[in-house]
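Title: Prediction job returns without error message
Component: structure pipeline
Severity: low
Priority: P3
Assignee: unassigned

Description:
Job completed but the reporter wants confirmation the result is attached to the right record. Sequence as submitted:
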Amino acid sequence: MTPRRRRGRESPDQGVTSRDGAPAAGAQRRDAKRQLRPRIRLVDALGESVASVAARPGRSMLTMTGTILGCAAFIAIIGLTTTAAGQITSAFNELEATTVTVVDSAVEVSGEPGFSFPDQVGPLMRQLNGVIDAGVYAQAPYSSQLTSISIRPEVDGAGGSEGSVLSVYGAEPGTLAAARAEWASGHAMDQFHVDTHQPVAVLGFAAAARLGIASVVTHPTVFVGNTAYAVVGVMAEGGALPELGNAVIVPITTMIDHYGPPSSSDPARALIRTAMGGAGLISIQAPFKLRPDNPEGLTAIAPPDWSMITDDVDTSMNGLLLALAGIALIIGCVAIANTTLVAVMERTGEIGLRQALGAKPGHILSQFLLESIMLGGIGGLLGSAVGIAAVLIGSMLQSWSPVLDPRLSLASPAIGVIVGALAGLYPSWRASRITPVAALQHS
């Protein structure tokens, strides 16, 4: 007896066969529907998107302008602030690692004018390993003579009017070297001038401008009251001691002879420039080297750590500038959304024809969304190029070494793609909701 065929349900993939082995009618219908289901390949969709974007180059470029500006601003802001921060940080690090100031704290404690530094501070400090230049400096205490500083002597109590704004400092030649002073004319005083108490002077750049002395070629003379000082040098703008820019600088020994020791409210100081990284050690050694009999009378101060300050400034500036870049990206997003929406309205007939030929709403949505993503991505690429060029040009104009994270060149197109996707969501959805009848009627 032949066993009876069991008619069980099989999976749709296996199909159901009749008694003679032919596929059942239901399976045939499913296979037919699967074969007739409209599909669109990614290559074809990309080709149509490129053709659509290239068909209107002017409009496409204007649409991408906002994204280009936003991405360029993003790259330029990050790059320029990073580059500037690198330059500032390197300058601060150099000062932090190479500069030490020693204050005459014994005079401050006593409350009486005085000078606790030994003779020839510069040569003495250069005996320490790591010291490049060093010297002592101090402002002259108040004196009636200091109220008249001019290129002519005081006559009957009337002298030059510059005395009310200029000051007199005493210094060693090593002080100016440690301060990285540059010279517009002439040169610094030398150790001979200090040792022999010579009446010579060096002018800061602002003091020279006020006195009308631009060069030492004519051997100019400056009068402090009735005391004449031969000008041997004119400093250029800059240096680590900006207070000397508006001063007449004489040998420290000459200043003490003429005006007395520094006051307790503004005691003498020594400026020490060290090799890179030596400031911490020299700040410990300097008081013992200068005053081994009373090192507590001198206080060495290493420069503060500027990293926290610069980090706060960088964070604040980056936040502000990135907010501006974000605004530009929002404008670009709105521009892409507006253009895509206009394109949907203009291409309503095309949408209806596609639907009549079998395109599904998902196909329409993906097509327009892909076009807006392409606009955003191209805008991001162009913005990345513009931003990198801005960083390079800005660094070249400032003679900086550009600092730019290479990952930013990838981040900018990614941002453009995201902006394009967000901008194209609503117009693409609206295009997918258009019915074929309405579309063909509109056309």
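Comment from assignee: result matches the submitted record. The mean pLDDT is 79.
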